[in-house]
């Protein structure tokens, strides 16, 4: 099994592997180009990210954006992120439709062993999944292996260390559910209105 295969599987791997070093460098070049691109040419800026990031519909990202690899990121339709989004995508990071990401958010699928000797020799990770209609407030941190359900709001400054169920408002460090919400029905527009 290659180091890249181990990484993608969430197993311990060496980030010093030449293939992974190359992939990270290419992702940094992509982010650099995006971050320095003309902010008035949104289509060209987003095309730069689409070289590696999988967009499943319209998306808008403000600069600056940073990632480890890019090819492990899947973003649903109608995605928006404010300034300074960082996604450490050593494993798959999937974000659903209609996601709104506040400024200075960090989503990390990357982790390191607690044991200091093991930490010198490798790292690991776990996938992150974020559902549809989720809003992450500014300065939120989402940690490896977390699943955030559909229709959730994560309050500014929260550190999400464990799963958050659908239809929740969650806040704090560590992030905890403080309220359950019932999504409203879509408005029906009648003819003549």
Automatic annotation (TrEMBL):
PANTHER family: ACETYLTRANSFERASE YJL218W-RELATED, GALACTOSIDE O-ACETYLTRANSFERASE. Its EC number is 2.3.1.-. SMART domains: Mac (SM01266). Belongs to the transferase hexapeptide repeat family. Residues 4-58 form the Maltose/galactoside acetyltransferase domain. Keywords: Acyltransferase, Repeat, Transferase. GO terms for molecular function: galactoside O-acetyltransferase activity. Coiled coil: none annotated. This is Acetyltransferase. The keyword Cytoplasm does not apply. CDD domains: LbH_MAT_GAT (cd03357). The keyword 4Fe-4S does not apply.
């Amino acid at each position: 099994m290659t180091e890249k295969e181990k990484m993608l599987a969430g197993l311990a791997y060496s980030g010093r592997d030449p293939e992974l070093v190359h992939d990270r460098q290419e992702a940094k070049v992509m982010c650099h180009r995006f971050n320095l691109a003309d902010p008035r040419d949104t289509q060209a800026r987003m095309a730069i990210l689409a070289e590696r990031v999988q967009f499943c519909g319209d998306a808008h990202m403000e600069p600056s954006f940073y990632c480890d690899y890019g090819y492990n990121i899947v973003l649903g339709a109608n995605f928006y992120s404010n300034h300074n989004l960082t996604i450490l995508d050593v494993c798959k990071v999937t974000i659903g439709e209609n996601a709104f990401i506040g400024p200075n958010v960090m989503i990390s699928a990357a982790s390191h062993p607690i044991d200091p000797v093991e930490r010198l020799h490798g790292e690991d990770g776990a996938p992150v999944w974020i559902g549809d209609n989720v809003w992450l407030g500014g300065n939120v941190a989402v940690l490896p292996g977390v699943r955030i359900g559909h229709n959730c709001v994560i309050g500014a400054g929260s550190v999400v260390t464990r799963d958050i169920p659908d239809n929740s408002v969650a806040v704090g460090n560590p992030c905890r559910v403080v309220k359950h919400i019932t999504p409203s029905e879509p408005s029906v527009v009648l003819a003549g209105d």
